[in-house]
């Protein structure tokens, strides 16, 4: 079994002779992709990937769910998502930007939880021709800065272009249909804070009451709000976060099941095994060896 590797910007540069970097933003344009590339095995991106397809077609899985990309489609992959290729056409033309999220730290983003959920649910999406051309323009402008290492304010220009590309990509999702509609600022703030707490505490806490207490609401109100907006209860979210963390450790590390169960604060490996099987239909070792 081949373990899922973690891919950083440096890995992309080392493995792809057509990849370049400018101010921590890796960019590349791929055509007639040869075998034995990063698109031929499962891995986890350590940064944010923004890709535009202008020809060909590819099928893949993100966090075990299948998607595809073809001409005039955009693909967004968040950090720490598991990417698994399935197939691709012989001629596949893709331009992509890969970057660490901290490169945009300090820049204020308009927060829209609806958009975040839509991207998570549909990471590849058809793009109107005009917007695709604008995204490619941002890409080309970033690419051109690679040769201008003495450019004054180059880092600031790259950050500005990248910010514009990300916001433009996110704007595509504002017009798509979604089951998620948040009309209450209070509920939006509650869900945002719950998800933030969950990311911080998913390895240690699986109790809904803990999160409700931190958010100054009752467990019942927290779960009913999440269910109404996201179609999943607080416990559903907690369990999914724990399972994703467990899957990642099983596929990307050599930790034993006992060590993983301890890291995720389970009382013993047997309890962890039963928990994992309840939500995945297989034991931890069966998942690791699949």
From TrEMBL:
It comes from the Bacteria. Residues 192-290 form the HTH araC/xylS-type domain. The lineage of its organism: Bacteria, Pseudomonadati, Bacteroidota, Bacteroidia, Bacteroidales. Transmembrane segments: none annotated. Keywords: DNA-binding, Transcription, Transcription regulation. This is Transcriptional regulator, AraC family. GO terms for molecular function: DNA-binding transcription factor activity; sequence-specific DNA binding. Gene3D superfamilies: Homeodomain-like. Pfam families: HTH_18 (PF12833). It comes from Dysgonomonas macrotermitis. InterPro entries: Homeodomain-like_sf, HTH-like, HTH_AraC, Tscrpt_reg_AraC-type_HTH.
